[in-house]
């Protein structure tokens, strides 16, 4: 066969591959768009492991925050990782990391919160815009087990080796192709020898910079995706966001034709053209040559690149807020006001609900003073504390609450709830509890008021010292720039603190040997005393219950506890 015939056959093969690739790409796009539409407005079902959370946390830990973020105790008390996981319908690694950072960083800036909310509302109203942006962002996707921001920092510090050997290999393959065309019978062997050498050396040359090529490939795709997203949002009132993407597009427009040679998405679509380009890379080393040039260019314009990446993540995070609002029917905007130290912080809540609980019972409360909650175990005290705190976080992060009304000043939010012994540091539960409470007391002197949730103050010590010390701590907090919600079983505190704390309680009903909770908040301190009755429900003998009631009655009458004594064959108390 002549060289022309060989070239014609090759051209037909390439044409067939292009046609098949376009067909596959359209099918993939259709399926992808449908999948994204189905996920929007639902809880994310993906499972996360601890290493992934640590990776996502990188951006938050290395970013400057104008206001103190939620500390680890509060974040863990409120189970915010689970809320983040279920809310996370982001399409990119940058959006995922920004969403995590936003949820950990309550803001006191009305403008910042309103802007996030307005963009989220736009995504809710304009379904076509939302679908287009989500589709294009999903083409960028997420890096597995890699923080985009951590590797971006590493990329800018990486010193690439010389590309001279790769250029020589590229020249050799071009020369061998030219010789083969002139005389295929003689030089075809030379071509295959050069190709084998190039492929063999490719993986050795690539190994040193493999991870960085992966990230740069991601950044190159990001530049390409930014062009589509800029077009999507054009004319939608997002001038600032559009300008950032346009600036990045202008600075990195040279990357356009290089995308195919550096980035491969065969794992995503099984694209035949992309698979063909994989072999082109191995034979020519073109990606290694482009990598070194593009590295130098990216370092020279890293601020523009970082801004563009941040803006794509920001838009991704905003569409995720829109998804959460679609998921949580009955959500509302919060009513947030600035408050100094001149007056007591307040909170108005109407039908407030926990966002993670199905068929959650709603509660309402107007708190003009600190609040002391009483009630039996499992009656709803801890859940109510978490409900209020989580909604306070959502109000100051995504400008969304799962309540009919939430009105409050901007807060710094602290909790002291799900504590445990720190055996590795050799600290008892009581020491851990003291440290947790002390951090709240120390934070209470700032200009921005503190919202704190305390569950069972000082439960780790004896009754006498617990009541006296916890009464003093709660009294001290009431005099500071704090709105405190505290749950307790110590009914003595309701009397001790009635001048500075409002009392509220949860109730239970015992019917036919069963206990029922309505999880509704009631005014005033708890008046029921069902703990002993619950012993009976759980199978304790009637004699034990009667004796326990007698002991309780003795204490109420005499103001002291009886002494338990035992004689031979008889039991008694005196």
Automatic annotation (TrEMBL):
Please provide the Gene Ontology terms (biological process) for this protein. mismatch repair
Pfam name, any one = MutS_III
Keyword terms: ATP-binding, DNA-binding, Membrane, Nucleotide-binding, Transmembrane, Transmembrane helix
What GO terms fall under cellular component here?
cytosol
Annotated ranges, domain DNA mismatch repair proteins mutS family: 368-553
Q: Which GO terms describe its molecular function?
A: ATP binding; ATP-dependent DNA damage sensor activity; mismatched DNA binding
Q: Which domain of life is it from?
A: Bacteria
Q: Which PANTHER family does the protein's record reference?
A: DNA MISMATCH REPAIR PROTEIN, DNA MISMATCH REPAIR PROTEIN MUTS FAMILY MEMBER
Record protein name field? DNA mismatch repair proteins mutS family domain-containing protein
Q: Species lineage, top-down?
A: Bacteria, Bacillati, Bacillota, Bacilli, Candidatus Onthocola
